[in-house]
Write a structure and sequence with these properties.
By secondary structure, this protein is of the alpha+beta class. Helix 1 packs antiparallel against helix 2, helix 3 packs antiparallel against helix 4 and helix 4 packs antiparallel against helix 5. The longest helix has 55 residues.
Length: 514
């Protein structure tokens, strides 16, 4: 009995010890869980401070990974702002743009309107300079199992043909498919570029294992005749059955007479690889030629732009003819007395007030892409002036792209007409008669009351130029003839007429094919 009681006490002590150990373990676990977030936060703060210091020193390649790790340990808006700023300074503007969008969403959830507005403004500023890359996969190239990757990351089929923001620099596009040769292309893209890469139809890989055919996969039937009677290939040989491991009547080079030999002996077996190689070459020859990568500003191609234009036409043409001056006459002093001379377009001209009015028409550009960023050609601008008049000018034009802007200069010449108020008609005095007419070189034409028209169309040849500023509203690169961009263009134009000046302020909406 005594020993039994001693045993019971020992068991009670053991239970109490286990309970104490369990409490201690639970307490330790709770402390660990409580301390762990604090440790992670401290590590994140240290990494963030290090990253900011490195960023101030310009060591962006070291700074950005530290800030990124800090955000992973403790995702906070302040850290994401620092990360986006670092990537922006590093030149990874597409990455920074996405991070600014995420920052704006996080700030909106936090109710931080100031940070949300700041993130939105930063993202909008970057969006104007974002390069975009389009991966086109024609129908002929979209074979079963095709995988297209960008810098090693697979691109989903739904994203093919879509312009995607991408960081400036070099990028590798590759494509692969079962039984096909792998294809790769490196593309260099700059800020504001819009480029497209077209995946060609992949050539067949003769060294790849042949794809199973229904004939090979179906169970082979026993030949009705003995093996010796088979003309070319038997159903079995040296332990290989008709349906075994892809070998049989349709197998590649496995004959009935033995292991890997046809019924005709070693010569027939030796001929099989040559036949297969010839078939592979013929199949490769039948593949469509690879389509070259399309670029929306591909050098050496023709460029055509057309659009609707409208704006203001300011005519400061102060002299000209209105067509029926021969019905008027004027007089001036001559040695014999006073001479009455008839008017014509050579000796008489009408005076006009300035005329301002809206006009509507179109503009066009036809040229050549000297490089991806430089276009040289001829620009034409024409239209009808409401209230009477017209504009028809054209000349050489040069334009260069800077991100989403095209800046250009055009030399223009052509005809301008305006319907303006007539202020009077004057006749020219011959130079040898100027002294007799008190030094005057012209005199007012005598006209009956009300005989002068109130307004008339005055025309002149004009020469000058314009500054062309175009904003890319939508870039639509592709491998087809529709590749191009939608542009909003403003072209302030100044021209000198034979008698006066012409100012034009047109705006146009057009599409540039390239």
């Amino acid at each position: 009995m005594r020993s039994f009681r001693l045993g019971g006490r020992s068991q009670d002590a053991a239970r109490r010890a286990l309970r104490s150990s369990a409490r201690a373990a639970g307490l330790a676990l709770a402390l660990a869980l409580a301390v762990s977030p604090g440790v992670a936060f401290a590590q994140a703060e240290a990494l963030l401070d290090e990253g900011k210091q490195l960023m101030k020193k310009g060591k962006l390649a070291e700074a950005c990974p530290k800030i990124e790790e800090s955000y992973r340990l403790s995702p906070r808006s302040a850290t994401l702002l620092a990360l986006a700023t670092c990537h922006e300074k590093q030149g990874k503007i597409a990455t920074a743009w996405v991070e600014y969008i995420d920052l704006g969403a996080a700030a909106r959830k936090e109710g931080n309107k100031r940070l949300e507005a700041d993130a939105k403004a930063r993202g909008a500023k970057l969006e104007l300079r974002l390069p975009r890359l389009t991966l086109n996969v024609p129908r002929a190239a979209a074979v079963e199992g095709l995988e297209v990757t960008l810098d090693g990351t697979p691109v989903d089929g739904a994203a093919w043909g879509q312009a995607r923001p991408i960081d400036p620099g070099q990028h590798k596009v590759s494509a692969s498919a079962p039984g096909r040769k792998r294809w790769e292309q490196t593309v260099t893209i700059k800020r504001g570029d819009r480029k497209a890469v077209t995946v060609p139809a992949l050539a067949r890989d003769a060294s790849a294992a042949p794809e199973p055919t229904p004939a090979a996969e179906a169970p082979a039937k026993e030949p009705p005749a003995p093996v010796a009677a088979a003309p070319d290939r038997g159903a079995a040989g040296a332990g290989k059955g008709a349906g075994g491991a892809g070998k049989g009547a349709g197998g590649a080079g496995k004959g009935a007479g033995g292991a890997g030999k046809g019924a005709d002996g070693p010569e027939a077996a030796a001929a099989e690889p040559e036949t297969a190689a010839a078939s592979a070459e013929a199949a490769a020859a039948e593949e469509p030629a690879p389509t070259p990568g399309a670029s929306p500003r591909h050098a050496g191609t023709f460029v055509i732009e057309a659009g609707a234009a409208g704006g203001a036409l300011i005519g400061l043409i102060d002299a000209g003819s209105f067509g029926n001056l021969s019905s008027y006459s004027y007089s001036y002093n001559v040695p014999e007395g006073e001479l009455i001379a008839p008017c014509n377009d050579d000796v008489c001209h009408a005076g006009f007030d300035p005329a301002i009015g809206p006009f509507a028409g179109g503009q066009a550009f036809v040229g050549l892409a000297l490089s991806e960023e430089l276009h040289l050609g001829i620009r034409a601008l024409g239209g009808y002036r409401f209230g009477g008049g017209y504009l028809a000018v054209g000349g050489p034009s040069l334009s260069m792209r800077f991100g989403r802007l095209w800046l250009g200069l055009s030399g223009l010449a052509g005809a301008v007409g305006q319907n303006a108020k007539v202020t009077g008609v004057k006749g020219e005095i011959p130079s040898e008669m100027v002294d007799l007419n008190h030094g005057r070189t012209e005199v007012e034409v005598t006209a009956r009351e009300g005989s002068l028209p109130e307004t008339a169309l005055v025309e002149t040849l004009a020469f000058g130029g314009s500054v062309d500023v175009s904003l890319v509203l939508a870039d639509l690169p592709s491998s087809s003839w529709t590749s191009g961009a939608l542009l909003l263009t403003v072209s302030p134009t100044f021209m000198k007429g034979l008698d006066g000046f012409v100012l034009v302020a047109p705006a146009s909406l057009g599409y540039r094919f390239y």
